[in-house]
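Cross-check.
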Amino acid sequence: MSEKNSTILDRVWLEGTNEYQQRVPQASQAGIAQVAEFLFDPMNRMYLNQFVDILVNRIGMTRINSMVWDNPWTWLKKGKLPFGSTVQDVGFEWIKAHSYEDDVTTLLEINRPEIESAYYTINRRDQYLISTNYDELRNAFLDEYGLNRFINAITDVPVSSDNYDEFQCMKNLILERYTRDGFYEHVITVPTGASDADVAKMVLQAGRMFAAKFRFPSIYYNMVPIPAFTKSDESLVFLCTPETQAMLDVQALAAAFNREDAAIKYRIEIIDEWPFTPADGQTVQCIITTEDFFQVYDALYTTTSFYNPQTLTTNYYLTHWEVMAYSPFVPAVIIETEPAS
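Predicted model, tokenized:
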């Protein structure tokens, strides 16, 4: 929702330092014109700098409006990296049972479990630059909603760009898994003359089957010699394209996965297109995995600015560093269809 200049100016005033509040007039009391006259006085440059800093960093970055493109997979991220630059993911191979012996002599032997480790490091360091000049800021005071548009112009573009790039990076993790370690592929042969409804039923049946199979320890679905399984209260992620979603129909999918007697939790996530090409004649319908497939951590997310007095231009930098990886320890299955030969 757009805010008037007077509202934004008063919010900046409340966020300002004691000196700012003592020197800069309050818009609701003195009026917008008097605030602008004070801020754009060449002798008050320090207060204008503080105004812009609060406007962009404290207000703009916390009120991103509906024009910003959000990464739909943000909820699959694992939060912030509290320290360091590396995340260790560990899986333990299961051990074999031994027959009970009452005269055992191996009491003091050391038996360590075999360990598989994956290390994820900061591998995305992106920065987004956008500039604005003195005239653009001054002209924003002349329109009732000018400051609102000024904030949006500075914050929306870099944030949307970053969110979209993050989404593309997460898609590339699927490609990396596909080309490096591979997925367990389940191919459904579609009889000649089968309708979309028939295909949907077959895909849903396969989805329910693997949702149940994931509850039992197996090394078939994670491509490493560590038995993987999902707990009964763990949510599954159902990745599919808009085309597959339209074929399956959300209600049919919900009925297939969310029956009370099955108690299978899932979340449908849409991918615009698959980042890989399947074998000839095959169509990828979906990928079923867990929310731990994506190992994405924010290491640094900040905005900074630099004022160039020669051009009266302020450059704003959105910097985003992340750990971007996939876990080799979680189960993941590709469900594909192919026509009968």
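The radius of gyration is 28 Å. Residues 64-86+124-341 form one domain. Passed to J.P. for a second look.
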